[in-house]
């Protein structure tokens, strides 16, 4: 079978928040290669990945140290099955955790090393959240400049900053609990349409994740990072990267820097990518792309049924 590898195809890999109990169970039952992938990951992780993904409970699956490996393995299982159908990307990007999935998909990091990295990253982020408690909130209806102004006014001697620039009019902020709560009130006063605190175990993509930085740097130093076979758009730069040392450095910066997702999507579209696949659980990224550019086609592929539709199409 010839591989579909044209300049307009891009894979998008989801991050934390896309998980659901039952994820991957249909894939595991349908394909020996997926079984091998899940079994290998479970051995490396040293916790019951399959049970947590397939049966939950949700309270366990949503813990960062379990969520991140679960989404990562599910995404790479879908990646494997799409490629078998002759669909391979010419570029990739991933939202936060999803950047690791994208780098494995692009051949920059081996699957086993990716499993170890996301396990360590999840544990470090959860521990950082315990040591320096924080929270996050989604704000809809304000511009990036308004959000920056709100955060500056709310911070005082504490921390609050934009964490995810998701799509036009949807920005997530992150920081210490009091500062985020002040920013939420100021956002309402500034005319935000929706202000909603998120259920998270830490202030991701903020300086409060600094406690995790040293451990992640050490983990990345032990991993063989190769040149990416296709460009992977960095969360930090919103530009394509392929070089091993730059990849390593940007993954460290990503812990405390905002995810520039809207900019990533616009840059990918400007580079000619207009045939997108959301590769993994959920349909979050499909929705963000539609709100960024209504003309861009995006298929969310996360189940056996989704794959069957691609095969038939």
Describe this entry's structure for a reader:
- Helix content is 49%, strand content 15%.
- The model has no long low-confidence stretch (mean pLDDT 96).
- The chain is globular, with a radius of gyration of 19 Å.
- It has 313 residues and is α/β, with parallel strands linked by helices.
- The chain contains 14 helices and 10 strands.
- It has a 6-stranded mixed beta sheet with strand order 8-7-2-1-9-10, sandwiched between helices.
- A hairpin with a 6-residue loop joins strand 7 and strand 8 (240-241).
- The protein folds into 2 domains: 9-130 and 208-312, 3-Layer(aba) Sandwich (Malonyl-Coenzyme A Acyl Carrier Protein, domain 2), CATH 3.40.366; 134-201, Malonyl-CoA ACP transacylase, ACP-binding (Alpha-Beta Plaits, 2-Layer Sandwich), CATH 3.30.70.
Task: Give the SSE layout.
Blueprint (H helix, E strand, L loop, with lengths): L8 E5 L11 H6 L1 H14 L3 H7 L2 H4 L2 H21 L6 E4 L3 H8 L5 H21 L3 E6 L3 H12 L4 E8 L2 E6 L1 H13 L4 E5 L14 H9 L10 E2 L6 E2 L2 H11 L6 H10 L4 E5 L4 H9 L4 E5 L2 H9 L1
Helix pairs in contact: 2-5, 2-7, 5-6, 5-7, 7-10, 8-9, 10-11
The rounded Rg comes to: 19 Å
The CATH homologous superfamily of the largest domain is named: Malonyl-Coenzyme A Acyl Carrier Protein, domain 2
Shape field: globular
Number of helices: 14
Second CATH tier, the architecture of the largest domain: 3-Layer(aba) Sandwich
CATH fold topology of the largest domain: Malonyl-Coenzyme A Acyl Carrier Protein, domain 2
Tell me, rounded to a whole number, the average pLDDT: 96
* Residues in β-strands, percent: 15-25%
Spans where pLDDT lies below 50 across 5 or more residues: none
Number of DSSP-assigned strands: 10
> For the terminal residues, how far apart are their CA atoms?
15 Å
Tell me the structural class: alpha/beta
The level of helicity is 40-55%
Side-by-side strand order of the widest sheet: 8-7-2-1-9-10
Order of helices and strands: EHHHHHEHHEHEEHEHEEHHEHEH
Main beta sheet, described?
6 strands, mixed
| The number of domains | 2
CATH class group of the largest domain: Alpha Beta
